[in-house]
Structures are given as structure tokens and as C-alpha cells.
Design a protein that fits this description.
mainly alpha, 4 helices
């Protein structure tokens, strides 16, 4: 009987054989690929159902539907590190500083 490590949180993984680990990995890969294609099909179906009738736009193919969310992400969220958290923290720190009463007894 194998000895379980307390608090490791990976006991379920350590108890698997190599074949079991490979099977889990392949199953997750197949699931990921299936979800990718389902997502593309869903975006394509919704676009082709709504956009041509509502706005007179052309229908789109599968790969265009897959690329559209990535294009939207690039346009509206930017590329690279997300500096908005840092800017928000700096803005909050400045706001707190401005709201504190002055040391000379001024207004808050």
C-alpha cells in the first residue's frame, strides 16, 4: 500500500499509473480540442444567425469566427502586461492621500 503525503494535494495524481496519467492527458487534450471547435462553431452560428439580418453584414466562416474574439481581445484589451492594476493602485493611493486631513489641520 502506498503511503500518502499529508497536505501535498497531489495524492490522487501520484496514485495513478503511467498509463492512467497518459490517458488523463489524452482525454484532456481531446476535450480541449473539442471545446475549441465547439466555441468556433457557436460564434459562427450566432454571427450568421444574427448579423446578416440585423445589420446587413456578410456571413463568416469557421476560422473567421475563431479569430474574431482574439481580434476583439487585442483591440480592446491591448497586448502585453496589464498596467491597469498598477494605475488603479496608484490612483487609489493618491485619492486616499488627498482625502486625509493635512498635518496643519486643513480640510480633508
Amino acid at each position: 500500500m502506498s503511503e500518502k503525503k499529508c497536505g501535498s494535494g497531489m495524492g490522487w495524481w501520484d496514485d495513478r499509473s503511467l498509463a492512467g496519467k497518459v490517458g488523463i492527458g489524452l482525454g484532456l487534450a481531446v476535450l480541449g480540442v473539442g471545446l475549441f471547435f465547439l466555441y468556433g462553431w457557436l460564434v459562427m452560428s450566432l454571427w450568421n444567425w444574427l448579423m446578416p439580418d440585423l445589420f446587413g453584414l456578410k456571413t463568416m466562416g469557421f476560422w473567421q469566427a475563431v479569430g474574431l474574439p482574439f481580434l476583439i481581445m487585442l483591440l480592446f484589451m491591448g497586448v502585453g502586461s496589464n498596467n491597469s492594476d498598477r494605475k488603479d493602485r496608484k490612483r487609489k493611493r493618491e485619492l486616499r492621500r488627498s482625502m486625509q486631513p493635512d498635518s496643519e489641520g486643513g480640510q480633508p
